[in-house]
User: Fold this.
Amino acid sequence: MDSNPSLWDVVVVGAGPIGGYAARMMAERGLNVLMLEEHLEIGKPFQCAGLVNPGAMKKVGLEHTILSDVFGARMYSPTGIEVKIGREGSVRTHVVCRKLFDEAVVRQGMQAGATLWLDSRPVDVEIDDQRVCLTVKRGDQIFNVESRLLVGADGAHSWVRRTLRMGRPKEMMIGFQIEVSGYIGESGYLDMYTGQDIAPGLFAWAIPNGRTHRIGVWSRPEDLGGRSCEQLVEYLMKDSQWSERFENCRENARFCGPLPCGLIQRPWKQRVLLLGDAAGLAKPTTGGGIGPGFEQVDLIIEDLCNAVNRNHLSEKNLKKVCKPIQSIRKRQDKSRALRNLFVTSCNDDELDSHFEIFSRPEVIDLINEEGDIEKPVPLGISLLRKVPDFRGLAFKAGIEMLKPR
Ligand SMILES: Cc1cc2nc3c(=O)[nH]c(=O)nc-3n(C[C@H](O)[C@H](O)[C@H](O)COP(=O)(O)OP(=O)(O)OC[C@H]3O[C@@H](n4cnc5c(N)ncnc54)[C@H](O)[C@@H]3O)c2cc1C
Assistant:
């Protein structure tokens, strides 16, 4: 073991997109940052459909990682009612190569001055009033590393969160995805399939990805009824009413991973902060975690860097720094309640009747006008307020929104 500890302002565990973005933001503000990544390279293995919204893309300016643009979606009810939203030419979201994207975000952190240790992970941590002392395994060697602040950006199964007993995300979905060539889709549109047999409580997707498609499904474990997400994808592709679209598909790769959707109660602790998936930030409506992770960093970065500079990193001070992220929690809670009302708590008949209403031209106009993948709550509330057939649901929504959380 190297007995001279290396000294840093901040150690970030996890060089994924959120750890890389946070490292850049902190290094740009003059902090001395070390990123630890347990793998030998950045961005591998990845578990992601690759959707990055224009707002998040603007923050990093990595347009060269875009494989295709998505203008809208074709959404299908359990019996096959189609709702097509979006307008040709108006980009709703980008589909990126996650490996290139993650590498580039981390490179931006390094260009700003942060240091990256690959093949490195913490194996022990001690925290006192002045510092965080980490024992780090780097390759076969053990190092002592000291910092003022420890950031856990180490993903859904965060070592930092588990080791320091910081709680659990409200929902931990399971996602499974395969990459195929030969899917019959419509250029520029992603397809979403619903129904108990295909994606109980949520939806399956087919996302255009340059020359291939990403076919996946996500679900809450309690809704799976003993099936795996892999079996659901197989059902969609081989036995569902949509199987013809998949007849010529050839598989190139498969991935499975968790989606933590529900900010943990306290993503801070004395000298410790959790960011991104580690904090449970993925969206309950889509599972997207990159946009909310970037937003979390932006909301706290100035106060956080001031606190690090002044070494004011008590639990009380970090709680104050984290106050702005309560807005993300409120949005997550509302979007989860709306998701449950419109999709997750519905049986197939109810879903069909919702799709029948969604498919009316005036409702599609409303969705096109107000829909925003990043912020679905305003659209959900408008649907309840402005579409008379959703009045029953609006009443239920009132009760849902008033429930204590
Ligand atoms: C099937 C699926 C599809 C998805 N599709 C989308 C999508 O289309 N769009 C979207 O925005 N999000 C999507 N997500 C979610 C998205 O992948 C995550 O929200 C996002 O990657 C979170 O970034 P992060 O940096 O917080 O964590 P991660 O990307 O998980 O990065 C964490 C990093 O920490 C490293 N690490 C972990 N533990 C340690 C340790 N102990 N020591 C050192 N390093 C460690 C990991 O190797 C990794 O590099 C999807 C997820 C799944 C499962």
The first helix runs from residue 17 to 28. The chain has a mean pLDDT of 93.
